[in-house]
Amino acid sequence: MTAINTQTPFVPGRLEQMSTRIAFFIAGFGLAAWAPLVPYAKARAGLDEATLGLLLLCLGAGSILAMPIAGLLATRFGCRRVTIGGTLLICLALPLLATAGSIPLLIATLFVFGAGLGIVDSTVNLQAVIVERASGRNMMSGFHGMFSVGGIAGAAGVSALLALGLTPLWAIVVVIVLTLAALLKAAPHMLAYGSESTGPAFAVPHGVVLFIGLLCFTVFLAEGAMLDWSAVFLTTEKQIGEAYAGLGYAAFALTMTAGRLTGDTIVRRLGARRVIVLGGLFAAVGLALATLAPGWEVALAGYALVGIGCSNIVPVLYTAVGKQTVMPENIAVPAITTLGYAGILAGPAAIGFVAHASSLSIAFLLIAAMLVAVAISGRILKV
Q1: pLDDT tens profile 246-266
Q2: Cβ proximity of 195 and 6 under 8 Å
Q3: What is the pLDDT of residue 2?
Q4: 8-17 contacts: CB < 8 A, separation 24 or more?
Q5: Pfam families attached here (predicted)?
Q6: How far is Cα 62 from Cα 76, in angstroms, rounded to an integer?
Q7: What's the confidence (pLDDT) of residue 11?
Q8: So what's the pLDDT on residue 126?
Q9: What pLDDT is stored for residue 1 in this prediction?
């Protein structure tokens, strides 16, 4: 099959912006639907924290391996086809994640689930860069805000269904129906092409691109801790019921959504540098509060503060990637996406090993210290 002509005169408009927002929603919705299922999977397979961390590493491996491949496929076949394929992989894996009780099956399913997430994440970020550039205005915070909207709907929605008495499998059936409905709405207006630039789909980041990628890794690591470990922490350390454990991620996603949906205004008023500095400090304080303060109610407030702090750091960093001249944009964006999302997908596996060696509280406090480093870095990064 011949490559799609990327030198097309077509300019993305409002319908393409709408499809980009829905695609980000799908990515957040599918990912967050897994959060309330983690304690159930842990109990079904009889896993300790170290083994659970190893399984989560399989999810991260599938995603990280898929991301650069997705960039190549999007350039050849277009964002539309690749996004559809990744979404179908997510829908295929979710029912198994809700029912699998053996470690080998969980390993395979988490790998496929991670691959689907990686394909969708990488491709929608590529489409977002193209659509934002065509619009002539800053839209990245709004796009990422829809990812957070999906996170709220996925985590809180599945938690609500479980609290109403539905089994994990039937809760996931509802998730799949809604995901496919959103895909049918978005697909006709997804871009039929990929990057408008030429070059390899992936390259090892260096210079300022590597620096930005490491900052993305840290912020996404904090988000991954909320996704994969907040429910476990609330059930084991704060004695909250399993059916309500997803409220931790929901509190984080709610404030992150509010921050991102108003992010363009916030960045314009405070400046990109202050957004990074203040955001890193707020997130660090919130995570420390959630870890050290007694009571699950205070922990939820801490997770909400983490969401406020993290909300606009990554969109600002994506904008900074577009301004740098060390690497071409079409190479830097997939490289940064892969390195950044390693935090949300592979990082939580490391949290499991740290928790096994010491405690989950120690692991969370280490992330808080890394977020302080992000705040310090914001003072020296040119954005």
Answers
A1: 788 788 878 988 999 999 889
A2: yes
A3: 38
A4: 8/193, 11/134, 12/130, 12/131, 12/134, 12/135, 12/191, 13/134, 15/189, 16/127, 16/131, 16/134, 16/189, 16/190, 16/191, 17/131, 17/135, 17/139
A5: MFS_1
A6: 21
A7: 67
A8: 83
A9: 40
Q: Do 87 and 179 meet the contact criterion of CB atoms below 8 Å apart? A: yes
The helix/strand/coil state of 295 is: coil
Provide the pLDDT for residue 30.
94
Instruction: Name the nearest CA neighbour of 66 among 339, 340, 338.
Output: 338
Instruction: Return the domain boundaries, the chain.
Output: 14-378
Instruction: Give the integer Cα–Cα distance in Å for 68 and 91.
Output: 21
Task: Copy the structure tokens of residue 275.
Answer: 């957004």
**pLDDT per position as a tens digit, 10-50:** 667 889 999 999 999 999 999 889 988 988 998 898 888 77
Cα–Cα distance, 209 to 212 (Å, whole number): 5
| pLDDT of 268 | 83
pLDDT at residue 204, rounded to an integer: 76
| Whole-number Å distance between alpha carbons of 237 and 162 | 21
Measured distance between the N- and C-terminal CA atoms of the chain, rounded to whole angstroms: 41
In single-letter form, the type of residue at position 178 comes to L
CB 11 within 8 A of CB 131: no
CATH of domain 14-378: 1.20.1250.20
Is there a contact between 156 and 250 (Cβ–Cβ < 8 Å)?
yes
Tokens 């691109």, located at residue? 209
How far apart are alpha carbons 208 and 206 in whole angstroms? 6
In the block, tokens 């809700």 appear at 98
**Which pair of structure tokens corresponds to residue 338?**
């892969």
Q: What is the CA radius of gyration of the chain?
A: 19
Handedness of CA 68, 152, 270, 17 (dihedral sign): positive
DSSP per position, 145-160: HHHHHHHHHHHHHHHH
Q: Are 335 and 204 in contact (CB under 8 A)?
A: yes
Contact 309, 280 (CB under 8 A): yes
Helices (H), the chain: 14-32, 38-45, 49-77, 79-99, 103-135, 140-163, 168-186, 208-236, 247-261, 263-270, 272-292, 296-310, 313-323, 329-345, 347-357, 360-378
Residue type for position 121: D
Torsion of CA 71, 76, 78, 81, to 10 degrees: -90
